[in-house]
Amino acid sequence: MTESVLVTGSSRGIGRAIALRLAQAGHDIVLHCRSGRAEADAVQVEIQALGRKARVLQFDVADRAVCKAILEADVEQHGAYYGVVLNAGLTRDGAFPALSEDDWDVVMRTNLDGFYNVLHPVMMPMIRRRAAGRIVCITSVSGLIGNRGQVNYSASKAGLIGAAKALAIELGKRKITVNCVAPGLIDTAMLDENVPVEELMKMIPAQRMGTPEEVAGAVNFLMSAEAGYITRQVLAVNGGLC
Q1: Against a cut of 0.85, is the pTM above it?
Q2: Catalytically annotated residue among 81, 116, 153, 229
Q3: Known catalytic membership, residue 81
Q4: What is the pLDDT of residues 169-180, one digit of tens each?
């Protein structure tokens, strides 16, 4: 029975850190990218150097038909996943009156619809394993308290939390836990250059940005056997911001 974990959006940043940390913990990793194939291939090499197996799937989590085809084929060939980390996401920031329909739709299709598009094709195979399983959704502090200029992003991440909590109820007796990790200000390439870091620092008791590795550590715990009685929770990694 395979103990592989799918990590979406794992070619760089937080996703890369999660993939490497889970590989260090002994999992084989199914990497995913939308466009950064060279970066994903490089992460694959890093994981293989750790003595674990890794493969790369390339698709857009917003494309339901493609998700279904690729994920069903992967499970058919390699077996059901032990766990899934839903990390792929994007931002289209701007004041609400200036948000275009596309700004709203693209963020929702990726961040929220991606929950259904990725999990639905792999859910029944995970259940049929009749063994413990783990699902971790990477949300955001924006989904907890909202953020100026991120009405679309905040809504998508809050919706993701709601979906995860509901799915946790359905899967509780199946020994499959569903939790969220909500990062705050994390030092990654996704951090927009226009973000007022110094101003935000004043609101963070820890007085610093977090690292991708700190987020990965939280995910690794929730994916572990020790977290088997933890489900339907949101673990905030934000230096005390909220």
Answers
A1: yes
A2: 153
A3: no
A4: 999 999 999 999
